[in-house]
Every structure is written in structure tokens, then in C-alpha cells.
């Protein structure tokens, strides 16, 4: 528990915590409203409301007075993209919580085990060479997930010593595996004709993008998110105990080896699925759990719901910035998240160094 500092705004009372979650719920709603309106094409709120009501009702509750293109932009592009942004932000936050509990280090994030680089290499191989083309739009998703599974398999094998996996060994193995798959990805891009559409697609995807969001992909990532969330909530008390140290966890009856393996599997599944639909988006899994923990505390039954709201809202706002900052062009959302996350990461490092007396 020493790796996690006390809350700067401790919400000890249940009412305070509920109030915080309600406020964040309103922030999420505000982000949704702004995201539907803003973009390369600015839409009016009355039109947005009427289109949404008609689509949800499945009939013309309001007379159609808008252009077909307006409905296509709103219901076919923006709304699935907004919901995908929320799920991706919430999912990355959950992965960050898992990794930080596993390593007992508040500076860990979803990519600490090389899962992201593995998923990226798998997806890029599909984009570059057309593997799994028979799966159509799902080819990239399957490739990313396969890459994530291979990377975590290698990391755990490397980190296993005398049938035991320690957090330190796992982190070091993850760094090595991440470097390996990063090199493989760059090699694939290097050997493809410069300036080709495949290179541009792969490069843009590697920087993170929600431009390919659709209702079909949203269903896929939402199902994975909900299943992982249920499992994580069931394990929340064991995660609390794990933070106290392996020895303490064992004395209270927690099978730490089994718990660590479940954490790794959940993190791999969720990160692989997320990367397959959004590309590589860094720092969300690092910054959001850390910020939320500083407000609501380390208890996972509180941290998990709060981080979902904060992480989801953060990425929806980041997506708004990515769409309007250089409109009608679009910034990769990974660039936006890095502009926020990188300075915060440096601040955490500086703070840790100062408190250690270095």
C-alpha cells in the first residue's frame, strides 16, 4: 500500500462519494451533448434531439425536416463514435487499475506488459499484408487480439521463475516484449512502400483513432467491457488485499498466483479488444486511476465505478478536441491524450523523486 498515497480530497462519507459520482455523471452527459453538436459539421440541438428520438422510437415521432446527410452524420457516425470513446476510456481506466494492483505501483498502466504493442503488431500485420481478409472489417480486430494474447504469453513465460510470477519480473519481461513487438511493427511499415495507403492507415491507427467506430464494433467492445467489469467488481475485495502485499494476502486466504493470472487474463482481453477498435491510446490507464484514487481513495469498490465515469468523460472530451482542433482534418486521439498524460506522468515522477528525498 506504500506505493499509493492518501487521497488529497478524501471522500470518506458515502454521501460525498455518491455526490462525486453524480457530478461526474453530469459531466459525462455534458460531454455527450457537446460531442453530438461539435465537429467538422456543426449541428443544431433541436435537430439532434429530433433525430435521436426518431431513431430510438423506430418511427417518425417528429416530421423529417432535415437532410438525409445530417441524420447519417449524427446517428451513423457521431453517436457510435461517442459511445465507443466512452467505453474505450472507461476500459483503459479499468486496465490501469488492474495493472496497478498487480504491480502495486501507481505508475503502472495497461501497456506495462507489452499487451498494447503486441495488439498493435497483430493489427498492423493485417493492415499491411491482408491477413484474415476473409473476416472483412473484423480482420484487424482479430489480428489485434491475437497479437495481445501472444505478447502476454511471452511475457508470462519469461517472467516465470520456479513456477512463480513476481511483479518485478513481469514488468521487466513486459518491457522486453513491448520493445520486441514495437520493432516488428516498425519493420513491417519500413518494408512497405512509403506513401502507400496501407502505411498511412497503419501509422494513423498506431497513434490512436476512433474514426472507424461503428455500431457493430461498439457492440463487440461493449460486451467485452461489461464481462470484464463484472469480473473485476467480483474481485474488488481481493484486489484491496493484494495491495497490502502477497504475504498478507496469503495469510487471509487469497490465492495470489491464481488472482494474478486472472488479472493478467482480464487485462489482456480488455486491452486487446480496446486496441483493436481504437488503436494505441496512451496515458489514459495511467492518469485516470491515479487522479481518481487521489479523490475517492484506494478501495476498489469505490475506485472502479468512479474511474469508469472519469475515464469515459476524459476520452469523449479528448475526441471532441481531436475532431475540432484542426477541422475539417482530424488529430489522432492518441496525440491529444498524450498532451495531457505526458506532463502528468512527468509530474508524478517528479513528485515521487522529491518525496523519496532524491
Structural features, described:
This protein is an all-alpha fold and 358 residues long. The chain has one domain: ABC transporter involved in vitamin B12 uptake, BtuC. It has helices at residues 14-37, 45-57, 68-103, 115-129, 139-159, 167-190, 197-206, 215-234, 236-242, 246-251, 256-278, 284-296, 300-324, 333-355; strands at residues 160-161, 164-165. The chain has a two-stranded antiparallel ribbon with strand order 1-2. A hairpin with a 2-residue loop joins β1 and β2 (164-165). α3 (68-103) runs antiparallel to α11 and α5 crosses α6. The protein starts with 13 loop residues before the first helix and ends with a helix.
Structure in a nutshell:
By secondary structure, this protein is mainly alpha-helical.
Examine the coordinates and then state which fold CATH places here, giving the name of the CATH topology.
Answer: ABC transporter involved in vitamin B12 uptake, BtuC
- pLDDT < 50 stretches: none
* Integer average pLDDT: 84
H-E order: HHHHHEEHHHHHHHHH
CATH superfamily: ABC transporter involved in vitamin B12 uptake, BtuC
How many domain regions?
1
- Strand tally is 2
Strand order of the largest sheet: 1-2
CATH architecture: Orthogonal Bundle
